[in-house]
Design brief:
single chain; about 35% helix; 2 domains; binds flavin-adenine dinucleotide; about 280 residues
């Protein structure tokens, strides 16, 4: 990725320090999306925050690099309208204007040997918003489409606080609710795989129910898809670095000399590999 302003000339660490003597002192380890969010929340609440990141950039798993003149992204590719904490985060770091968010969910489903189908929501209440699209969803046979509604309604009614949901795979639950292999691979896994990162055969019912309830079954606009118009390294890491400094609670690390730890910090071997930095006084 392109270097962050004020982050050049550093080895093994990106660090930012809150103004000394203000509020409680907080150390945040890791400058991925979670760490940046935590650091900003603490700083906004008045804490003097030090954020430690062992790599040279913020953003964690979401970063960009150049190849043959093209900017390539690693990490998160899409988000949904129901990801409200993420949208607030983008707003906080000044990146909200650099993402695209569909007016309404509209996805082309392309499968070998089957005419391209689409999942598109209508502007009616959930879960009816997908009914018309699913009735015409030619990827699975008509009988399977008709049986989908019963399972979807049962899924919407599950109590997410019930620990029993974690005792069963999503697939066994789907079988019990009239869903066969065609419906599972052609429809349920289309959503389960990219969101839970597992097929229905391996996903817990609890995880799948959370995703489907939040993203598709309770609010019609929740599943609208968003993506970045700029490289992820800029959208998250560079903007976060700017936001962390811009509110006056932070100082950049550019003044730290190459290869030398700043005065308060000592160097440690990270648990996995590489080097991390920590502050022994916190
Ligand atoms: C290829 C790919 C595709 C993805 N697609 C999507 C998607 O489409 N939608 C979606 O929502 N999500 C997606 N994700 C997941 C999403 O990117 C991650 O869940 C999210 O970025 C994780 O953020 P995090 O802050 O929890 O962890 P991380 O990004 O892992 O951040 C942890 C940070 O801590 C640092 N660190 C670790 N140990 C130390 C230490 N000892 N000292 C200092 N620093 C340390 C690491 O260097 C890292 O920067 C995808 C991920 C990948 C890899």
């Amino acid at each position: 990725m392109t270097g962050m302003p004020g982050m050049t000339g550093m080895t093994g660490m990106t660090g930012m320090t809150g103004a000394p003597g203000r509020g409680p002192r907080v150390a945040v380890v890791g400058g991925g999306l979670a760490g940046i969010s935590a650091a900003l929340a603490c700083a906004d609440a008045g804490a003097a925050v030090t954020l430690f990141e062992k790599r040279k950039h913020l953003g964690g798993l979401t970063w960009s690099f150049s190849h043959d003149g093209l900017s390539m992204d690693n990490g998160q590719h899409v988000f949904l309208r129901c990801c409200t904490a993420y949208l607030d985060f983008l707003d906080r770091i000044g990146s909200a204007g650099d993402v695209e968010l569909q007016d309404r969910l509209d996805v082309a489903v392309i499968r070998p040997g089957v005419a391209t189908a689409s999942l598109r929501r209508d502007k009616v209440r959930a879960p009816l918003h997908l009914a018309r699209s699913l009735l015409g969803y030619g990827v699975i046979p008509f009988g399977a489409r008709a049986r989908f509604a019963g399972a979807a309604l049962a899924l919407a009614r599950l109590d997410l606080d019930d620990p029993a949901l974690d005792e069963e795979t999503f697939e066994t639950w789907l079988f019990r609710h009239g869903q066969g292999p065609e419906a599972i691979s052609g429809l349920w896994d289309l959503i389960c795989l990219p969101t839970v990162n597992l097929p229905a055969s391996e996903a817990s019912l609890a995880m799948a129910a959370k995703v489907f309830q939040t993203g598709l079954l309770t609010q019609s606009s929740a599943g609208d898809i968003g993506w970045s118009r700029v490289p992820l390294g800029l959208l998250h890491g560079e903007r976060a670095a700017t936001a962390l400094r811009a509110d006056g609670k932070w100082r950049g690390a550019s003044g730290w000399r190459r290869g030398r730890p700043p005065p308060l910090l000592h160097r440690e071997r990270a648990p996995s590999r590489g080097l991390a930095w920590s502050c022994p006084t916190v």
